[in-house]
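Need C-alpha cells for this chain, all 621 residues.
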Amino acid sequence: MDETFHFDVSEELKKLPDKPGVYLMHDKNDTIIYVGKAVNLNNRVRSYFREKIGRGPKIDRMVGLIARFEYIITDTELEALVLENNLIKEYRPKYNTMLRDDKTYPYIKVTAWEEFPRIVFSREMKKDKARYFGPYTSATAVKDTIDLINKLYGLRTCNRSLPRDIGKARPCLNYHIGQCSGPCQGNVTKEQYQEQMQKAMEFLNGNYAPIQRELREQMEQASERMEFEEAIRYRDLLESVTAVSQKQKIEDSAQEDKDIVALARDERDAVVQVFFVRAGRMVGREHYYMKNTESETTGTIITSFIKQFYAGTPFIPKEIMLPEELEEQEIIEKYLSEKKGNRVYLRIPKKGQKEKLVELAFKNAQLILSQDKEKIKREEGRTIGAVREIEALLSMEGLTRMEAFDISNISGFENVGSMVVYEKGRPKKSDYRKFKIKTVAGPDDYACMREVLTRRFTHGLEERAEGGGDRFTRFPDLLLMDGGKGQVNIALEVLSELHLNIPVCGMVKDDNHRTRGLYYNNQEITIDRGSEGFKLITRIQDEAHRFAIEYHRSLRTKDQVHSVLDDIPGIGPSRRRALMKAFASLEEIKEADEATLMERADLPQNAAVAIKAYFHQMNSN
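Here are the C-alpha cells for all 621 residues:
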C-alpha cells in the first residue's frame, strides 16, 4: 500500500451506495482480513464503524485493525453471494469463518461413450459423456469397490482403444488370472460386454441381490463338484459384496439424493457433520472443522459452511437437511439451484425419520468433537507435556528444539554419524542429517562424535555469517548425547572451541544398555521411567540410533556389492551400475544364469560368462 495514500474512513463511508455488493476490509499492510456481502452496502459497512458495535470480541478486534475498505457493486444479492465465495476462497481472510478442510471427493466414473466401457476412479465430475456415481468420502473404499466390480463382471482396466486394437497385443495379467473377460482378444462381443457393464451399474445403484444370489449358487455348485479352491474364490467375492451392501445402513423410501448437515461446538471449536445419502442410501459421512467461530451463532457458522462447501463440490443434492433456519436461506437456495441446474431445497425437519437423521448427525459431530479433544490432550501430553517435564528436570525454560546425535560402526568399518531433530516433542525429519566420518579410521566413538559436532556447528556458523541457507543455521535449545559424562564433555569442548553456549545433556544407560537417567551440569538426574518425559527421551535416543544404523547399513551394502563386482574382469563402472539397477542384491546376481544376466543387465555374452566364472571360482575356494 502506498504510504502517501490517506484513507479517511468517515469520508469514504459517505460514498457508500445503497446497492448490493461485496466489501473487503484491509489492514495497515494492505492484507485483506475480511470479506463480506451485503444487500445494502451503505447499511452493512457503516455498521462496523459505530461506537458500540455489539458483534462480539472477534469482530471488535477485526474492526480495530481496519485501515481501509473497498467494495464491489453487483446487480443482485445472488451475484454478491457468488463473488463473496470466490473472494473468500482466493484470499482466505483471517477473520472470516472458514472451512479448515480443502478436500476433493472421489467419484466412480463409467466411460459410457466407449464401446467397451471401463469403470475408473475420478476426483472430479466433468460435463462429458461419462456416468458418475458419488461423491464418496473414502478414496480407499472407492478403489476397493472398483476392484471388486471389475472382478465380479470381468471388466477391462486397460487403456487400449477397442475395438480398433482387438488382437494386436498380448492380454494382460488380469486376463490370465481370470479377472478380465478379454475383450482385447475378441473373447467377448460388444453386446455381451455391455450386458455385464449394465449389471455393474445396477450394483453401483445399490442392487446387490442378483450378484449375491449368483455368487452363492456358483459357490454351492463348485463345492458339489469338489472344486474347493473355486468355491473359496466365490465365497470371498460373496463376503466382499455383503460387506459393501451392509455399509448402506440408512434407507429412504423416497430414493432421493440428500445431505444431512449438523453442527456441534464448544467454546473454542466447531465441527460440521455431513451424511451423504444417494438414491435413498447413505453412501458415506464426513466431518469438517470450522475456524474463527468465536462469538458466531450456530446459524452463521452453518451458513458459512454451506456457501463454502457447496461452492467447491461438483455435486449438489436435491435436498439439504439442516438443524435450523438460516438468515440467508432463500438466497442460498437460489444460488445452489442455479449452480445445480435444478431446484435445491434447504429443509429443517420437525418430526419423523428426517428429524432423527439430523439428530444422529449432531450426535456424531459431538462425538468427534469430544474424541478429538481427548486425542489432542493425549498427544499434547506425549509431546508438549513431555518437553515441559524435561524442562522441569533440567530447570530450563523455553525448550523447543532438541538435537540428538549417534555414531554407528562395525569394527571401525565405515564410521557414520546421525543427527535427529525434535521440535515441540515431535520429530522434524526435514532437519535430520547424516555424516560420513572423514577423519577417523578406527572404532573411536569419541573422535567420531567430535568430528560430527564440529562439522554440524561450523557449517551452521558459516551459513549464518553468509546470511543465507537454512541447512544448519537453526541451533538447538538442548543437545542430547547418546551416552553419559564422556559424550557430554566432548560436546562441551566442541561448543567451547566454537564459542557457543548450548546446554548439553547425556542419556545415561544401565548395564542392560537402557536409559536410566540424564547427565546434566556434572550430575546424574534420576528420571521416572513411567513419565512422558522419559518416554520422549527414549524415543529420541532410539530414533538417533535407528537413523545412524540405517545409514550405515546402506553404505555397507553398497560398498560390499561394489567391491565384489569391481574384482570381476571386464566389469567396469557402467556395467556394475547396470547390474545393480537390474538386480535387487548381490545374491540375485550370483544366482542368475548367463541368459538372465545378458537380458536384464544388457550385457554381452563374454561379460556374463566372466561373472559366472568369477562366482564359481569363489564358491570353489
